[in-house]
């Protein structure tokens, strides 16, 4: 059963979002446990990487150019387009916040399933996450009046816990444990790393289901907007980096399409307006459909 789930994990990530929508009480109940799942996923993913190699990739100018496109370029594009289309202020703010959000921490695990460059995916995830508070601050500066108070302290703690903490644990493991023991351990836990990803679409879609129960037509509009945003993120990432190789194009596309909306809400909270959480829930199904599309496209292109 486990091997079947792992083999078809990309499909089951999307199925997890559907199950969370159909069972909102369980989705909402599971939501508070997502940070623990996130930490476990980051630890298991980073343990498979030598931190010296990751740092070399993270210091490449291309990674930071990608992060600027991911955080600032798409935010400007989405906010400008929303303003020209006459979108309401609350929804425009929510769209801009989603566009500014860093890549989902589960992205490297998804890229591993696709068989692409995990180190590059992790570097893109870390870089876009580090730029997130700057992007959100600029967004609020443009769209909000009065004082802006981001919870930078909480964000810094989460960076230490979810990124630098697992990186340090990985460094200690590779420094003091023999390579063959590390390899055996990683082979044993690798299937469970993939299964942890299922928790995110399942636990994050509950807020969208609440909107659907209250106003189905509004929920359909948010779903359409979320699907369109994911498509824009994915396609622009692919075509911008396709010239550097098909594999890098798909890594950039998946990293761009995945958005860590939970972390964005943590640092900005109510400043993001009432439309953010429903939109964050609405993007879950299309977000986890993108890797399935990426796998199909990769086979066709190859």
TrEMBL record:
The highest taxon in the source lineage is Bacteria
Keyword Transmembrane helix applies? yes
* Bilayer-crossing regions: 5-22, 28-47, 67-85, 91-111, 118-143, 155-173, 185-206, 218-241
Q: What UniProt keywords are attached to this protein's entry?
A: Membrane, Transmembrane, Transmembrane helix
Gene3D superfamilies per record:
1.20.1530.20
| InterPro entries assigned | Na+/solute_symporter_sf
Report what the protein is called. Answer: BASS family bile acid:Na+ symporter
Source species: Marinomonas phaeophyticola
């Amino acid at each position: 059963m486990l091997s079947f789930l792992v083999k078809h994990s990309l499909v089951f990530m999307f199925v997890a979002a559907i199950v969370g929508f159909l069972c909102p009480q369980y989705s909402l109940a599971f939501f508070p446990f997502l940070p623990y799942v996130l930490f476990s996923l980051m630890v298991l993913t980073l343990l498979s990487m030598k931190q010296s190699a990751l740092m070399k990739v993270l210091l490449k100018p291309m990674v930071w150019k990608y992060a600027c496109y991911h955080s600032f370029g798409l935010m400007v594009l989405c906010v400008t387009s929303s303003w020209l289309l006459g979108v309401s202020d609350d929804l425009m703010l929510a769209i801009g916040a989603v566009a500014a959000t860093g890549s989902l921490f589960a992205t490297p695990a998804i890229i591993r399933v696709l068989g692409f460059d995990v180190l590059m995916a992790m570097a893109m995830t870390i870089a876009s996450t580090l730029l997130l508070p700057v992007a959100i601050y600029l967004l609020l500066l443009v769209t909000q009046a009065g004082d802006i108070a981001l919870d930078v302290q909480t964000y810094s703690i989460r960076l230490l816990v979810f990124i630098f903490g697992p990186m340090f644990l990985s460094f200690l493991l590779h420094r003091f444990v023999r390579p063959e023991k590390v390899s055996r351990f990683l082979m044993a836990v690798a299937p469970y790393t993939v299964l942890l990803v299922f928790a995110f679409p399942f636990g994050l879609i509950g807020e969208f289901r609440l909107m659907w129960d209250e106003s189905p037509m509004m929920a359909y509009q948010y779903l359409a907007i979320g699907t369109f945003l994911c498509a824009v993120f994915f396609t622009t990432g692919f075509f911008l980096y396709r010239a550097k190789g098909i594999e890098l194009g798909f890594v950039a596309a998946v990293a761009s399409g995945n958005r860590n909306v939970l972390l964005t809400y943590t640092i900005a909270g109510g400043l993001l307006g009432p439309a953010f959480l429903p939109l964050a829930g609405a993007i879950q199904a299309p977000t986890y459909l993108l890797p399935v599309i990426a796998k199909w496209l990769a086979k066709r292109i190859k």
